[in-house]
Amino acid sequence: MNNEKNDTIAAISTNIGRSGIGIIRVSGALSSYVAQKILGNIPKARYAHYSSFKNIKGIVIDKGIAIWFKKPNSFTGEDLLELQGHGSPLALKILLKEIISIPNIRIAQPGEFSKRAFLNNKLDLTQAESIIDFINASSIQEIRAAVNSLQGFFSNFLKEIIHLIKKLRINLESIINFPEEDISHLSDQNIHNQINSIHKKLINLYKKASENHLTTANTKIVIAGFPNAGKSSLFNTLLKYEAAIVSKISGTTRDVLRENIYIDEKQVSIVDTAGLNFLSKNEIEKIGIKKACNEIKTADHIFFVIDAYTTKPNYQIEKICPEFSVIFNKVPITIIHNKIDLTQEKEEIIKINNRYVIRLSTYTGKGIKILYQYLKKNILFKNTNCNFFVRERHLNLLKKASNEIIKAKNNSQYNYYELIAEDLRLSENLLNEIIGKHISRDEILTDIFNSFCIGK
Ligand SMILES: Nc1nc2c(ncn2[C@@H]2O[C@H](COP(=O)(O)OP(=O)(O)O)[C@@H](O)[C@H]2O)c(=O)[nH]1
Ligand SMILES: [Mg+2]
Question: Binding of GTP: at which residues (predicted)?
């Protein structure tokens, strides 16, 4: 992204396409000059003015509402002019062309309005990120989470922990710098306890954040299992059409099939895979199994399908599938005990060995309702009061900050005050990086704001 922070920028902020209204935003020191040129005056701040939008020659291009925001009381914190014209893509482009023909005014980069809002302390970084999450939200839950993040839910948790770390650091600095002074220093036990309590808070936040990450991200469910268990039948059932070939012939599904479905407006990616026939000698089948393994490794959740008729009710899939025991410990699994029409078992959901097992039949449809309910309640919307929007970047930094606190905890056992202070300082910096404090590295900001659309 451009470093020219002082440029005045302009962009069409609404979707390009025919619509009722189209908005152009101009932000920066020359916005007032743009207002003079296009409207003939600088409108009273924060009032809606019905005006003519004219080109440099004084010819009217459009008529609409102009709103003038005087800095710092604007979205970007700069002087900002908003022109709400008719939603004609052509008229908007002509108007924008007029604006950027004024010297020192250029088209905004993607996300540059939000970046300026962040740089001018109008938003912290998690709040700025939540704007794009809000725009991209694919479910009501995600909208709620993004709004909460925008209101500062996540950053408030972080700020509380940062405050505790800072307070403790100040105390430690006083012990390090004035050990002999007659000041009442914290006891070693107290230091240890405070670090413990900070660590607990960080772990809780990380846990909450990871849950939110899963509930808000596009969840990928991989259907896996042995050949002929009914994986493709389940895939088709969830898709509500015959996308995958179903047959009695073992090894029918060779390639990975991937489709998106919507459940209560939340997008879920469903993946059908080849049966895990590890003894296969067939080269193509072997490639399919390798592909299946890659999908399993990157799943948010696995539906492991078992043929109730041929497979004994042995739900310890780690034992029947030792190749995957490591992955199965990491990715949550639900056992789909399929073909109950053949075994006369009843449709139900039970918990065996701490894992849910759903007995159903893709053939008769029995138990499918239970599966949907489970999917919604336990996988997609398990945290319905989903507090905030979490990104991979946040989770990584939280994890790193937590690791520094663990080091501080260890060092506190030996009263290594200097080392503890340093660990705390690093942890504090990492947490600050989440909310964007002390971020000076332009690439990070560029990465983040580049995912925005132009005009935002
Ligand atoms: N009786 C019965 N047969 C099923 C059921 N689900 C799948 N099948 C049959 O099992 C065979 C294998 O199904 P398929 O979905 O291709 O299994 P995959 O190899 O795991 O993908 C096919 O003949 C299906 O018709 C079920 O619930 N009941
Ligand atoms: Mg199949």
Answer: 228-233, 247-253, 272-275
Rounded Cα distance, 335 and 153, in Å: 36
Select, from the ranges 130-134, 181-185, 194-198, 326-330, the one with the highest average predicted confidence (pLDDT): 194-198
Express each pLDDT in 133-144 by its tens digit. Answer: 888 776 677 788
Provide the greatest CA pair distance for the chain: 84
- Above 80 in pLDDT, residue 222? yes
The helix/strand/coil state of 44 is: coil
Structure tokens at 390: 């979490």
| 111, 135, 392, 394, 451 from 446: Cα distances, Å | 9, 19, 16, 16, 9
Q: Where are the beta strands (DSSP E) in 282-439?
A: 301-307, 333-338, 348-352, 355-359
Are 332 and 302 in contact by the 8 Å Cβ rule? The answer is yes
Tell me whether residue 288 is exposed, middle or buried, using C-beta atoms within 10 angstroms of its C-beta: 0 to 12, 13 to 18, 19 or more: buried
**What Cα–Cα distance (Å) separates residue 222 from each residue in 228, 272, 296, 345?**
16, 6, 6, 25
**Side-chain half-sphere CA neighbours of 26 within 13 A:** 30
Rounded (10°) CA dihedral 273, 290, 303, 320 = 120
Q: At a CB cut-off of 8 Å and minimum separation 6, what does 275 contact? A: 225, 226, 227, 228, 229, 231, 250, 251, 253, 289, 292
Centroid of ligand 1 to alpha carbon of 238 (angstroms): 14
Return the ligand number nearest the Cα of 307. Answer: 1
According to DSSP, the residues that pair with 86 across neighbouring strands are: 21
Q: Is 253 annotated as a binding residue?
A: yes
Would you state the structure tokens that stand for residue 66, as one six-digit string? Answer: 């102009």
Q: Which atom of ligand 1 is nearest to the CA of 360?
A: 27
Cβ proximity of 408 and 423 under 8 Å: yes
Domains located in the chain, CATH noted = 8-121 (3.30.1360.120), 125-436 (3.40.50.300)
What is the distance between the alpha carbons of residues 325 and 302, in angstroms, rounded to a whole number? 13
Q: Ligand 1: list residues with CB < 6 Å.
A: 225, 227-233, 246-248, 252-253, 275, 305, 338-339, 341-342, 361-363
